[in-house]
Specification:
By secondary structure, the protein is of the alpha/beta class. 31% of the residues lie in helices and 27% in strands. Strand 12 and strand 13 form a beta hairpin. It starts with 25 loop residues before the first helix and ends with a helix.
């Protein structure tokens, strides 16, 4: 077949031409949104052949890492409600070409690391972080960034940060730590713009991170002991609490992360 007769990929994506004088009609927006949904389900290498579509309809695409565990749907819905385009994916190429990466998670540390390894996602996550790509870890996604966890015996983590994941000490308080609690800023990350200190966020966890370098602690919370509930260093921000379950303040964090990723 003559290559000159092959229709370009953009031929199959119906979207209105950008106009400076007026906004697209409701019908045009609907067509464009359908094209965007179709585009985002394609492999990264095909998406990159149509940069005009991406740049017109969205400013940033966030990859949510799917390793078979956790609260993927609630995180995805939280970003969508905040107006941020996301793609839940197990594809290394999506992680590498996204403008921001989110590692969520609920469950056991050992299972998390085993699934990431089995799916070949550890390398892409490390490369994304090392490249300076904005990265957000949520709950187990925070814990996985550290050297090791003592949950169910020793288990190695991603070792982005030196430190251990430890269990809450025995006390009169129930474990897991579940419900709303206050986060006090130690070093306010950029994605917390517009959010006051000492706000309540939603937690569900039995273990917490103990960083060797206290300077990366961006927020702290009390539950029998003071523990690190948020970290920040360079392009990496991670929370022990769940922004997607933390109502207006949490959705603001997700929106701010989208804006943070768009600038990088």
């Amino acid at each position: 077949m003559n290559s000159n007769n092959i229709m370009p990929f953009s031929f199959f994506l119906s979207f209105p031409r950008k106009r400076e004088s007026r906004k697209p009609s409701i019908r045009a927006k609907s067509i464009g949104n359908l094209s965007l949904i179709f585009l985002m389900r394609l492999p990264c290498r095909i998406q990159l052949q149509s940069p005009r579509v991406i740049s017109y309809y969205i400013k940033v695409m966030i990859a949510i890492v799917d390793y078979g565990m956790g609260n993927l749907k609630s995180v995805e819905k939280g970003f969508i409600k905040s107006g941020v385009a996301v793609k839940v994916t197990q594809q290394p190429a999506d992680i590498l070409c996204a403008q921001g990466v989110v590692l969520p998670g609920v469950g056991a540390f050992k299972d998390c690391m085993g699934n990431l390894d089995r799916l070949g996602l550890i390398g892409p996550i490390l490369r994304a972080i090392e490249s300076g790509k904005p990265f957000l870890g949520i709950c187990l996604g925070l814990q996985a960034l550290f050297t090791e966890s003592e949950e169910f015996g020793h288990c190695a983590g991603l070792n982005i940060f030196k430190g251990k994941v430890v269990r809450f000490p025995a006390s009169e308080l129930k474990v897991p730590h579940m419900g709303w609690n206050i986060v006090r800023f130690k070093n306010k990350p950029p994605i917390f713009d517009g959010i006051d200190d000492n706000r309540y966020f939603y937690f569900v966890h039995s273990y917490y991170v103990a960083p060797e370098d206290s300077s990366i602690t961006a927020g702290a919370t009390d539950y029998g002991v003071e523990f690190t509930s948020m970290i920040w260093k360079d392009n990496v921000i991670a929370t022990q609490f769940h922004p997607e379950k933390s109502q207006a303040a949490g959705l603001q964090i997700l929106k701010n992360f989208g804006a943070f990723a768009a600038k990088h």
